Amino acid sequence: MAAQRVVEVPKAAKQTSRVRVAVRLRPYMVKQDDKGEGACVRGLDSQTLEIINWRNATETLQYQFDAFHDEQATQQEVFLSSVKPILPHILKGQNASVFAYGPTGAGKTHTMLGGPEQPGVIPRAVREVFNLVKAKEKEDNAWDYSISMSYLEIYNEKVLDLLCPSAQDLPIREDKDRNILIPGLTNTPLTSFSDFHTQFLPASLNRTTASTKLNQRSSRSHAVLLIKVVRTQRAVQQRVQTGKLYLVDLAGSEDNRRTGNKGIRLKESGAINLSLFTLSKVVDALSTGGGGSGRVPYRDSKLTRLLQDSLGGSAHSVMITNIAPEYTYYFDTYTALNFAAKSKQVINKPFVRETVTTPSVQVKRSREEQEAVGSGEPQKKRLNVRKKTDPEEPIAPAQLHSSTDPSVLSRLMALEKLLMGTPVKERLKLHREIQELKEKQKEFESNAKTLEVSGNATTGKVTDSRLAGDSPLFRMHLPPLQRKQTTAARSKKQQAVVSPLHVVQLCPVVKKPPTCPKKEKLQVHSELPDGKENVTAVGWESHLDKLVLDQSKHKILQVLNLGTLKDLKGLQQIGDKKAKLILGWREIHGSFTQLEDLTQIEGITTKRLSSFIKANILSTMGT
Ligand SMILES: Nc1ncnc2c1ncn2[C@@H]1O[C@H](COP(=O)(O)OP(=O)(O)OP(=O)(O)O)[C@@H](O)[C@H]1O
């Protein structure tokens, strides 16, 4: 019978570890922004960046992360500051993960993979793992180390083995100790870095990529490289520790109006956006302590299921959010920054994965080993008995790293969304709730400020304008970040800094006449009786600033693609029947690429569509 026991985890290893978040801004690419409007985002220092506030082009929103890498940052700098520090953990039986997140074309693959001239995080990290193992072996010969790799992609919700491309969709399983396993996935032993190179490069070519309007070689899948380090003690009573390093290049979040995706690209895009949406829900749940319900929706997509160990699980995680400076990317950048800010609240609980076996007794192989088909895994007898963790257990509340309470902010954002499509009489109620949340937020900010003053708040997210005068950032005398040739009215207030998710009244920059079109809004009815179309005045859009108009349309599209039945019914001119038809359409076709797709729904003609768009946009303005 096998003798086994889980070794007591050292106290230090039980410490929680926050997901580190770095943001990398890629250089400006003129081609992608023919209008030459300049950058909409820029760095202020090694942790802080600012982006123009879409609600008021004369203001900027400021974010602070663990690291900010500007457009000049080299691959080496990104690696040294954001990735290298977490690697030693995997030699101690802990998990680590690095994943690149961001809109399509913002530089994720460049960061993770790079090229022969500028190798990215993946080759650098693997080389470093070999260096660390070598140094350990020299320092102490009581342990044997072995390194192996697996490489897979998640494409259209299928798990495909990149080291064995003929393999079919692989299942993701969980063993009794809550370890995530992929039976049948190739696990190749590595003897040196050049060995890795030989295996990895051809496998990378198996990854699914295609050309979209925004990126000639756009990754259409999430690529996950797994480097496993197993160390075995040479003593009679063998201790075996297994550490895993996940290096993940996520597919880009996509706005199909801009990617120009159609057909198969559109289907891929639906799968990509769905899994990234689930990822954001997981992060949301983790950063708000399980959203109150204690359930983290890891199982809702293959990506999150696989990353279960890397987010809120047992790993030391680093998320590198890639962003692009061009105006065309503005809303993607804004969304990515808010997602990244949320990820900072996720707390991981690292622990050592160690087993002890008595070699004289025949050892029963663990399920993981049994399932590692053709793995060529180190042949040492070992059991991966891991300390039991419950990935769906309620999460400890996140530490206060920010002057912005994430739960309040999420709720505010959700309310804003709701407000957009709520009939006038119901808005009063929502307004009241928003007021209350604002109060709560104010209170939270003042608490955070007190913490900052006492030197505790070292990694806050957003700088409040009231703190701006004290901030070193404002001693830099940078010229205001403004869109070139903007149609926005100039305000007397220059470079004010606001908390990004404050609910501010959305008032369009009006060209002529200079008033908000409130009256027109009042003529909008909530749902038109069948057959009677409310044909609205021509040219109303010309009164609104294009940025505001685009943002409003984007918001409507978000509700159409992500909203529940209730959210959909909250939209102007959408009743129960149409809301259900929209849900049905989504089931079959995936996401709406543009609002015009609504005409594919029974009963929505072009005229009705324009009436619908107008009603919903104007109702937002009137709040
Ligand atoms: N820091 C950088 N320095 C120089 N070029 C960069 C940088 N980041 C990205 N690029 C270039 O920008 C283009 C798009 O980058 P990349 O393919 O890495 O984007 P991506 O985020 O992986 O996109 P997708 O999600 O569509 O795969 C590439 O030509 C890449 O070489």
From TrEMBL:
Biological-process GO terms, alphabetical: microtubule-based movement; mitotic spindle organization; spindle elongation
Kinesin motor domain mapped to chain residues: 18-346
Main location: cytoplasm
Keyword Cell cycle applies: no
Binding site for ATP: 102-109
A Pfam family per the record: Kinesin
Coiled coil region boundaries: 427-454
Gene Ontology, cellular component aspect: microtubule; microtubule associated complex; nucleus
Xref: InterPro entries: Kinesin-like_fam, Kinesin_motor_CS, Kinesin_motor_dom, Kinesin_motor_dom_sf, P-loop_NTPase, RuvA_2-like
Region of interest (Disordered), ranges: 358-403
Record-linked PROSITE patterns: KINESIN_MOTOR_1, KINESIN_MOTOR_2
Keyword list, A-Z: ATP-binding, Coiled coil, Cytoplasm, Cytoskeleton, DNA-binding, Microtubule, Motor protein, Nucleotide-binding, Nucleus, Ubl conjugation
A GO term for molecular function: DNA binding
Cellular compartments annotated: Cytoplasm, Cytoskeleton; Nucleus
The keyword DNA-binding appears for this protein: yes
Family, per entry: Belongs to the TRAFAC class myosin-kinesin ATPase superfamily. Kinesin family.
Record's protein name: Kinesin-like protein
Annotated organism of origin: Esox lucius
Name of the gene this protein is made from: KIF22
